[in-house]
Amino acid sequence: MNVDVSVIIPTRDRLWALPQAVESCRGAACQVQIIVADDGSTDGTWDWLQDQPDVLALQTDGWGKPFAVNRAYREVRGRYVRFLDSDDWLPPGTIDRQLALAEETGADVVVAGAEIWRDDHLERTKPWVHSDDFIAQQLGESDSSHYSAFTFRRELADEIPHRTSFPAANFASRDDRCFMIEVSLAHPEVAVSDEPGLCHRHHDRGRLQFRRGLGDVGTNIQHLLIYRQALRLLEDRGELTPRRKRAACKALWPLAHWIAYTHPAEGADVAAWVYELCPDFRPPEPGALGALYERVGFRRTEQILRVRRTLLQPFQR
Q: Which terminus of the chain has fewer Cβ atoms in its 10 Å neighbourhood, N or C?
């Protein structure tokens, strides 16, 4: 069969949502290959998949999402490919609409906004934010939607695996961010679909990118190392423009605060990097907090915030 679009869906213990994700990939006029990688589910997912004759079902051994995606990618037969989390789904007509736009424009990536759902209720629609610098956008200049809302030309995606490690870091919970920054660094031709390309569900059942405790620390480290690598590559190529530095600082400043929450010295190092990249950087926090960052510096402000949290803790129980 000549396949137009392959859809990769990694999953683990999400049988409560997976059927909706799979169903949203059906009914297209073009030829669609649906690949589901079950990464060690114990909730009956594999049994359910055996009753889906139009789904290529794979079993992986619980090594995490990037490993599952990369394993599934080896089975891709489509001219284009897209990635879908098993707790999200596609709006009707998305696959055909974006395929037609890709073929009409010759784009390497078709991007789109997304609908944001809370469980089964639509909260809002996030339109795509148009930008004339795709790299700056992906670094953090403006909202870049969600990569599951996009369609990628196969030849482009072939060159960019979902990273599991790179050097000395595991990117398991930031693999999609790393993927999109790498896509932007490849200078793709981009086409914009005006209609939402994803229904992105917020829920309380846990998402890989929103961890707590030690997992949260690991995610922050991954995020930081991705930016260090991307900015190093841009600098080596002579492509680290002031605009792209400002875009990165927009993402790195809150990251410095998140890291400082548990590791003050390392958070201060990130903040110092922000000022190295953009000497005229101004903290975006409004009011007294922003003034405090400017007058006494990042490290002392974080110390004050830490003391404040300690004093308020007995009243928050």
A: C
Q: What is the C-alpha separation between 152 and 183, in angstroms, rounded?
A: 9
Q: How large is the C-alpha radius of gyration of the chain?
A: 21
Query: Could you give the CA distance from residue 21 to residue 90 in angstroms, rounded to a whole number?
Result: 7
pLDDT recorded at residue 204: 81
**Pairwise CA distance, residues 121 & 76, whole Å:** 33
Instruction: For residue 192, give both structure tokens.
Output: 């914009």
- Residues ≥6 apart with Cβ < 8 Å to 268: 256, 260, 298, 299, 302
Alpha helices in 83-174 (DSSP H): 94-105, 134-136, 154-158
User: Residue range 133-153: average pLDDT?
Assistant: 93
DSSP 5: E
The predicted model gives 223-228 an average pLDDT of 92
Q: Averaged over 57-82, what is the pLDDT? A: 94
Q: 48 to each of 17, 44, 45, 72, how far by Cα in Å?
A: 12, 6, 5, 18
- The rounded distance, in Å, linking the Cα atoms of 259 and 216 is 9
pLDDT of residue 166: 52
**Model confidence band, residue 213 (pLDDT cutoffs 50, 70, 90):** low
**CA 44, chain centre distance (Å):** 27
Report how far residue 255's alpha carbon sits from residue 86's, in angstroms, rounded to the nearest whole number: 27
Per DSSP, the three-state class of 78 is strand
Report phi then psi at 247, rounded to 5.
-60, -45
What span, in angstroms and rounded, lies between the C-alpha atoms of 88 and 21? Answer: 6
CB 278 within 8 A of CB 245: yes
pLDDT at 210: 43
pLDDT of residue 119: 83
Q: How confident is the model at residue 208 (pLDDT cuts 50, 70, 90)?
A: very low
